[in-house]
Every structure is written in C-alpha cells, then in structure tokens.
Amino acid sequence: MAATDPRIYFLLARTGTSAVVFRRGPTAQVLMLAWDRGSDIFEEGQWMKARVFERRCDLSPNGQLLVYYAQDYRRDPPVWTCISRPPWFTALATWPKGSSYGGGGQFTSNRGLILNHSDARLCDGSVPDWLEIQTTYGTGEDQPLLEERETRDGWMRSQNGKARWTSGEDEPRLVLDPPIVHVNRRRVLGNVWTLVRELRGRFEQQTGPYTEHFRLECDGRVRDLGRCDQVEWDLRGKNPDLVFARGGRIWRWTARRGDFDPDDIVELIDLRGCTFSHREAPTSAGKW
Fold first, then answer.
1. CB neighbours of 110 closer than 8 A, spacing ≥ 6?
2. In this structure, is residue 1 part of a structural domain?
3. Closest by CA position to 26, among listed 50, 55, 57, 59
4. Domain membership flag for residue 12
5. What gap in Å lies between CA 235 and CA 13, rounded to an integer?
6. Phi, psi (deg, nearest 5) at residue 145
7. pLDDT at residue 2 above 80?
8. pLDDT per residue over 266-277, tens digit each?
9. Gap between the Cα atoms of 244 and 251, Å rounded
10. Phi then psi for 18, rounded to 5 degrees?
11. Which residues pair with 249 in a beta bridge?
12. Which of the pair, 137 or 229, is modelled with greater confidence?
C-alpha cells in the first residue's frame, strides 16, 4: 500500500447483495459507491467534501438506508450524523453535533436504529413513524460502535494488545505490540477457515488511522493477505468468499477445490484514478 493510494472502506448489507463503498482521498474528499455483490457491478454516487468516519457508519440489513457520520469545520454545524439513501449523501434526516466525540449509529433492523447521540429530538428533517430510534449516551470515538457492529457481524476479540506512544515519524503514533487480534470463522467447502485481523498501530501519518494486517488460517495452512484497508467474509452464497480492499482497489477471493489459491484472486474495481466531481442526487434520494 502506497501513501498516495486512496483509503477504501465498505459496508455489506446483511440480507441480499447490496453494499456501500467509501473511497477517501484526499482526506477531506470522499466518494460513495453502490456495489451489487451479485454481479460485482459498481455505481458511482456522490462526492462530499468532508471527513466521513466510516467505522461509525452502518447499512440497514436490506441495504436501502445508510447512517453516516461526517465532519467539516467549515460548516455549521461542523459535525453531524445523517441518514441517507446510498449511494447518495443527501440527508433524509440530520443530527448535528459540536465535536467529533460520539455520533454515528447502528441499524438493529430495517426499521430500527441506535443513534449515538444523547437526544434524538435534535433532528433537522423528519423521521417517519415506522423508523424506531433509540439513543445511547453519545460518547466514544469509533468505539464502542465499531466493536458492537463487528461482534454482530461475526468478529471476536482473541487477544488484547499492549500500546506504546511514539514520535510518529517512521511508525504509527500508537504502536500495539503485541497487537489486538480479532478472528472471524466461517465454514467454506467443508472446512472451517479463520480470518485473522491484527491491529498493529493507530494514527500512522501517511496511511491512515488504522494499521491492520490480515491472514487466513485452516488446519495449519496460512494465506497471508498482508496490510489491507479491510477484509470481510461475503456471505451472499452457500460458501463465503473473501472481499478485501488494498492499494486503492477491491478484490474478491473465491475458494476452489477446498482451498484459497492466490491465483483465484480477482480485481473487481480500481478506484485510484477517481477525482472529485459535483453530482446532484436524484429526487428519489430525498424521499423516505
């Protein structure tokens, strides 16, 4: 991964084949795309000049609604949580905040949302009666929302890390040695494969807030993916695939003949050449 590569983060709908992709780069410019995982066709949506905190976002189970959290101190309010229809940032409802502490949300169902704000009544826009909103204390940064969402999606922490602060010049500002380790196990073609994620650092100057390395393990076999922006199981079929973001691109890895062979990795899309452009959302994006 090069320092100039855009950062990629995606959210997979729990039912169906919908997904949302955030392509960030430069830091305060982000593009949202819709991804049909059944056909692996991507639809470019909207750019926004703001910092989106991807790990505090969530997609409804059917993929029709997105809750996202963004920051731009040139705006008033400077920080906000929104619900929108992907791949558009156009807000259906907005909850303003004064700082980047707290915010974001998590869908409990297609009609239920946990909002990481202390008061859901402080809303710009209207929320339909069918959407039930619960609130939390509105605290934390990426945690606790991230851990709760990942637990829901099958990740389990298997090792706590030990942190030390550094100057941040040649390594992350926060180094984790040993790393924080999470695992996500799935049965693929009769074998149980473990996806291992090691969080080795935070706040690396050139390449983003998370330094994470991934590998697959099964009965002594190890398939190293190295450093990636994100790796997840795609549960759309009978046997899960791996989908991952690395080097400004998204890839799919399908197991064949009982194994994950590196020759079977397929590039789905290259997002390195994207540049900001203004695009108006369709009228339908502004309707519940």
1. 60, 61, 62, 64, 65
2. no
3. 50
4. yes
5. 10
6. -60, -45
7. no
8. 999 999 999 999
9. 5
10. -75, 155
11. 246, 270
12. 229
Range in 1-5, 33-37, 55-59, 150-154 with the lowest mean pLDDT: 1-5
The model's pLDDT over 5-38, given as tens digits with 9 standing for 90+, comes to 999 999 999 999 999 999 999 888 999 999 999 9
**133 is written with which tokens?**
């909103």
Instruction: Tell me the residue ranges of DSSP E strands in 110-170.
Output: 112-115, 124-125, 132-135, 156-159, 163-165
Say if 2 falls within a structural domain.
no
- Per-residue model confidence (pLDDT) at position 26: 85
In 205-264 the beta strands, taken as DSSP E runs, fall at 208-218, 221-227, 230-234, 241-246, 249-253
Q: Which domain holds residue 175?
A: 7-283
pTM, rounded to two decimals: 0.95
For the sheet containing 7-12, what is the strand order? Answer: 7-12, 18-24, 30-36, 41-48
How many domains in the chain? 1
| Residues whose CB is less than 8 angstroms from the CB of residue 121 and which lie 6 or more positions away in sequence, other chains included | none
Cα distance between the two ends of the chain = 39
CB 33 within 8 A of CB 41: no
**Residue 148 falls within a domain, yes or no?**
yes
Distance, in Å, from the CA atom of 195 to the CA atom of 191, rounded to the nearest integer, reads 13
Sheet of 132-135: strand order equals 105-109, 112-115, 132-135
Among candidate residues 135, 211, 207, the one with its CA nearest the CA of residue 180: 211
* Segment 172-184, tens digit of pLDDT: 999 999 999 999 9
Four-residue CA torsion sign, 224, 226, 232, 234: negative
Give the pLDDT band (50/70/90) at residue 136.
Answer: confident
